[in-house]
Write a structure and sequence with these properties.
This protein has a single domain, classed as Lipocalin, CATH 2.40.128. Helices cover 14% and strands 46% of the residues. The chain has an eight-stranded antiparallel β-barrel with strand order 1-2-3-4-5-6-7-8. The chain is mostly beta strands and 145 residues long. The longest helix is centred in the N-terminal third of the chain and has 20 residues. β5 and β6 form a beta hairpin.
């Protein structure tokens, strides 16, 4: 009679490992908020534009929008030359959508950024900036800092 009980105990312990060991943990999230993976400081590195403008590297800080639970605030998006210029982005399951927005410096920006790895430490962005009547489209890689 001991053999069936021992076997049952072995299966119960083994099942416990499978149930608790399969769920990955992400240190950058604090809960069920879909914005959590995007929050932080990101290094953007532009890799080109349609007008062959030399790419640049700059920092974008992403924070939660306190007035809308589906949005984030992106400071310095597009590198407008001052850190106090920000835009809002709508967060979906795997991307941030920056709808067309006018910045205080006269620029108009829009774009989409997508998380591109399981660790949620990098994103790919496609966006455009209209300044002085010229609309330039960019692509950039962003890495969590």
């Amino acid at each position: 009679m001991k053999a069936p009980f021992s076997f049952f105990l072995f299966i119960a312990v083994l099942s416990g490992f499978f149930l608790t060991g399969c769920e990955p943990t992400d240190q950058t999230t604090t809960g069920d908020d879909p914005r959590d993976p995007y929050i932080g400081v990101w290094q953007f590195l532009e890799s080109g534009s349609i007008k062959s403008v030399t790419g640049q590297s700059y920092i974008v800080t992403i924070t939660k929008d306190p007035s809308n639970s589906s949005q984030v605030i992106l400071e310095n998006f597009g590198n407008p030359g001052t850190q106090d210029v920000s835009v809002t982005g709508l967060v979906t399951t795997n991307q941030i959508i920056v709808s067309t927005q006018n910045l205080s410096n006269g620029w108009t920006v829009e774009g989409i950024g997508k998380i591109n790895n399981v660790a949620k430490t990098s994103m790919n962005w496609a966006y455009s900036i209209t300044a002085g009547g010229d609309k330039i489209s960019y692509v950039a890689a962003a890495a969590r800092q």
